[in-house]
Amino acid sequence: MKEELEKLVAAGKIGRQHLEPLLQLAHSGYCMHRSWGFGKITTVDTVFCRLTIDFQTRPGHSMDLIFAAESLKPIPTEHILARKAADLAGLRQMAALHHLDLIRLVLQSYDGKATLDQIQQVLVPDVIADDWKKWWEVAKRELKKDGHFQLSAKKTDPIIFQAREISLQDRLFEDFRASKGLKAKVAVAQELLRNLADLSDQNAAATEVVDTLNADIISHQRTQSSLALEAIFVRDEFRQAVGFPRPVGELTEAAIWVQTARPGPILEAIPAVKHKRALQSFKEANPDQWANVLVAALNSVSVKLCSEGAALLMVEGKLDLLKEHLARLISQHQASSELLLWLAKERSDSFADILGPEVFRAMLTTMERDAFNERKSNRLRDFILADQSLLVELIGSADLEVIKDLTRALQLSPCFDDMDKRSLLARIVKSYPAVQSLIAGDHSKQDSTLIVSWESLERRKNEYTELVQKKIPANSKEIAIARSYGDLRENHEYKAAKEMQKLLMRRKSELETQLVLARGTDFSNSRSDVASIGTKVHVTELNTQNAETYYILGAWDSDPEKGIISYLTPVAQSLLNHKIGEEVECNTDSAKKRYRIDAIDLYKA
User: Fold this and answer.
1) Residue 443, pLDDT score
2) CB atoms within 10 A of CB 590
3) Range scoring the smallest mean pLDDT among 18-22, 209-213, 462-466
């Protein structure tokens, strides 16, 4: 091949500078193009001065030799891409049996280093078609034990292959000693702790870590309390892992907590994965006042910390204290957006007696306050929009007037744009059609009104008031109490309370629909020339010649023994608007009857 290419140089068909690149391309048989990617060289034609290359997207592509020499990069046969093209089955077997050999092959193909994303991209799905995450976890454990690979704590940093083997303990301690600042030392110490079982001298490792951290903990305890606390956690875990006793006079977690009356900032500065550990530490350091202090701190911390703090309070039997504080913050509209967001996400039956319309009103106030203070977070607003059931659940226990007030407040709120408002208002209307006229601005009388007596209207209003103010709140408390008994599968009290909740909410919805349609009357303006609402009608049932008397009254009036019937009944509907002497036909469930109207009098209560 070299002789043939030399002839082309001599003939002036290619330049001398093209000779070596073309020889490498011909020798390897594989190449890389910056636009078309990896390709396999199938033929080298020195007669017509062309290469034929199978690119993935351009099979059988023909290329001039000069252009090929200048635009293609030779890929050696041992490169991972060449191996994939030549022996994919062998690579798959290597992936199954020899993880490190495969990783080494990839790294050596890219000058000894590659990021995790690059490794995944070249191996998945051709070589590793199954669960990549599971495969990598196994491979990573092997990499850490092997002295030829250098892994960083950051996923974006490259994994490096080094010919000289360095033990895991030496590598980690090299990083530990080179760490600048306590934060970096804590991160490497945690990595040492995770790999403690694979270290050659665990006692020596623990001694160095504990002594080094102790020196920095003392200097950081006042200036960076949260970082000192993290270091104490790692130090104590190291000591416990190797069985070292705690020396007298060593700085403890309690010494950090005793310095502050506000644990929120310290807890917030600690990584989220350590929140549970830090909260337990705070509790142990303040056995008498921890619950009250923690409850007060929840209004100034993140959602994640709210969740962990509330979980600890509930586990320790402080649910009532937590609920009392939440209820007070909500009623005074002082709850933070993070606390309200946690409550909205939590929304468990343990808080059933708190979750109500005031929570949504407090949310609107908090979002407006955050906007005024130029607080950038919109997480609470976004959650309200994303959770289709939140708004309806919160206003579910409210009476109709409260729902109307909340609807007006939502319409006036600057926290949502017009499209988002329409979406939220549509959710309200879907569950409470009675507010449709309020939203549409149409306050005209509806066609489907119900004419009712003042007495029956008062009875329905009293039933609705008792339902909203007594029965539903009492049921919410029953749910919260029954929920605290645990094991909901066998919790009959909880199941019964939830079933009752469905019945109460269904009845509430029915009453709201009825009351918004109801129009009260004393029947004083009734007509007496025809049978109408508010009249006493004397009839004869023609089949039996029996005389009967009917009082045709409001939609909710009924006393069959006294002859009082609703104007919506079949009998009343057949009589309405007919005069004395006329005969009417009525279809009832039992039979078809014919009546003659004998007399019509106005109804008197």
Assistant:
1) 45
2) 6
3) 462-466
Residues 238 and 379 occupy one common structural domain: yes
CA-CA-CA-CA torsion sign (199, 202, 206, 207):
negative
Under DSSP, is residue 599 helix (H, G, I), strand (E, B) or coil?
Answer: strand
Spell out where 91-192 has E strands.
113-114, 149-150, 159-161
Assess if residue 344 is contained within a domain.
yes
pLDDT tens by residue, 249-297:
899 999 999 988 889 999 999 999 999 999 999 999 999 999 999 999 9
Is 277:231 a contact under the CB 8 Å cutoff? no
Q: Quick check: 406 and 361 in contact, CB under 8 A?
A: yes
Q: Are residues 234 and 362 in the same domain?
A: yes
Please give the Cα distance from 93 to 142 (Å, whole number): 17
CB 152 within 8 A of CB 106: no
How many Cα atoms within 13 Å fall on the side-chain side of residue 273?
A: 3
**115 and 254 co-located in one domain:** no
Check pLDDT > 70 for residue 583. Answer: yes
Question: Which token pair is 217?
Answer: 């903990």
| β-strands 564-566, 546-553 pairing | parallel
Please indicate, yes or no, if residue 211 is contained in any of the structural domains.
no
What's the number of domains the chain is made of? 5
Strand order in the sheet with 72-74: 61-64, 50-55, 37-45, 30-33, 72-74
Of the ranges 60-69, 358-367, 368-377, 428-437, which one carries the lowest mean pLDDT score?
Answer: 428-437
DSSP letter, residue 559: B
Same domain for 49 and 132? no
For tokens 């102790």, the residue is: 214
Q: Name the helix (H) or strand (E) containing 418.
A: helix 418-431
Query: What is the span of the domain harbouring residue 457?
Result: 450-517
Residue 377 sits in the same domain as residue 271:
yes
Are both 248 and 333 inside the same structural domain?
yes
Q: How confident is the model at residue 34 (pLDDT cuts 50, 70, 90)?
A: very high
The answer to whether the CB of 391 falls within 8 A of the CB of 383 is no
Give domain status of residue 527, yes or no.
no
Clarify whether residues 287 and 429 are in a common domain.
yes
For the whole model, what pTM was predicted? 0.58
**In this model, does residue 236 exceed pLDDT 90?**
yes
For 451, counting Cβ atoms within 10 Å of its Cβ (0-12 exposed, 13-18 middle, 19+ buried), the class is: buried
Pairing assessment for the beta strands 535-541 and 546-553 based on DSSP bridges:
antiparallel
C-alpha 377/C-alpha 96 separation (Å) is 47
